[in-house]
Amino acid sequence: MYALSLEVMSLAFYLLWRHAGRAGLMLSSISPQMLRRRTRRNMVGHVVYLLAAVLAFLSPFAALALCGAVALYYIHPGARDAAVA
């Protein structure tokens, strides 16, 4: 259940991000390439949260570890984004 609630939040964030990108609500300093890169980076959470939700039936601790791994992944800015910041 925990992984599914994280997936719902992740999906809501993705939809908001996508809307802001398409509606031109992003800062002009964000290039289209960076926007695409960040969109792809945000997709990682969707896949892992869904995997964790299925894995929770077999091993709840492994599912929780996957959710924690996603949090650690998002803490790190990424090599290209760190160079820009």
Count of discrete domains? 1
> Which whole number gives the mean pLDDT?
86
As a percent range, the share of strand residues is under 5%
Structural class: mainly alpha
Specify the overall morphology. Answer: elongated
SS field, number of helical segments: 4
> Over the alpha carbons, how many angstroms does the gyration radius reach?
15 Å
Helical proportion, percent range: over 70%
Q: Please give the oligomerization state of what you see.
A: single chain
Q: How can the largest sheet be summarized?
A: none
Low-confidence stretches: none
The end-to-end distance, rounded to whole angstroms, is: 35 Å
Query: What is the N-to-C order of secondary-structure elements (H for helix, E for strand)?
Result: HHHH
Number of strands: 0
Fill in the keyword field for this structure.
4 helices, mainly alpha, 85 residues, elongated
Describe the model.
With 85 residues, this protein is mainly alpha-helical. It has one domain (2-84). 79% of the residues lie in helices and 0% in strands. Helix 1 (2-22) runs antiparallel to helix 2 (32-55).
List the helices and strands and how they pair.
Layout: H1 2-22, H2 32-55, H3 60-75, H4 79-84
Helix pairs in contact: 1-2, 2-3
Short description:
The N and C termini lie far apart (35 Å). This protein has four helices and no strands.
